[in-house]
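=== Discrete structure encoding ===
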Amino acid sequence: MARGGTGDLQEELSKGGISMNTMATSTLDKPTRRTLTWPFLLTQSYGLYRESFWKLFRIALLPALLAYLWRYGYRLAFHEFAVRGWISLLSGGFALLIASGWVNGAFYWVVSSFFFAAVASNVLATTDEEKPAISDAFTRARARLSAVTVAALLSWTIFWLGQAAASFALWSVMDRLRMRPGYYGIMLIAAISVLLLAGLLSRLGLVIPALMDQPSTSLREALKTSVRITEGWEPFFMMFLAKSAILGYGFYWLGDYALGWLWQHGSLSATTYPWAAQTLYISLAAALESPLFIAFSILYRESSMPQEEALSATTVE
């Protein structure tokens, strides 16, 4: 009498030098590439942020200081132009006002992009010896000066135009519906529109890490790489940005409260209060900007890791 189907199959496989136990073992023991998930990226990002906080904070102080000085100078220049009557809605003044708004935002984005490049250089380094020192944090960014600058201006222009278009569309709809939202309603609508735009713009979030990883990578190649890798990650970065904004608002509120308390108890005078406030705001900006850049850099690193390294990393973990 012939044996059952399972026995026949095992006998046939054995004739070829393969047993079912061998097949099962090879299937179960074969490592699989690590799947990137939201919890994994969050854990890795904030773990690295915690480990490298003081280094990244000191690197960020220069960009934060430049941004503050630019803000101070821009306000002085804007006030001077307004006093002289150069900014008005007549004789091209409106176009000047729009152009000045673009220039103001462009400076912040360029400065932030160079800090992003410094963060990416540290995250993508495979050993401690390869991580740039604080004094050399912006060396790679300076080597890709034109590419980083163009990437920053491109991202900012897309965001600026998108925000203008979204604001115009929302106000047109509310005007037709005769809706008159209050202050908090306007803030909520603006926050939602910015969040949606940020989600779309996150598709370009890996351009800087790609430029820092491979010195020979062109801006076009970096854009293609970023769009490919970030597909499906828009909700994650929208969540990440919303959470960061809420935490940032909370820290700034606590900072203002602490300054007010020190003022009321005589620890700060009219002379020292402005300096304390400026130091606090610069320090907060330096401390709170890096987590998002770390997350982008880790997503690029893990997605670009060769198969052998990914399998090895999975086995170690």
Observations:
- Residues 93-124 form the longest helix (32 residues).
- Residues 106 and 154 are 9 Å apart (CA to CA).
- The mean pLDDT is 82.
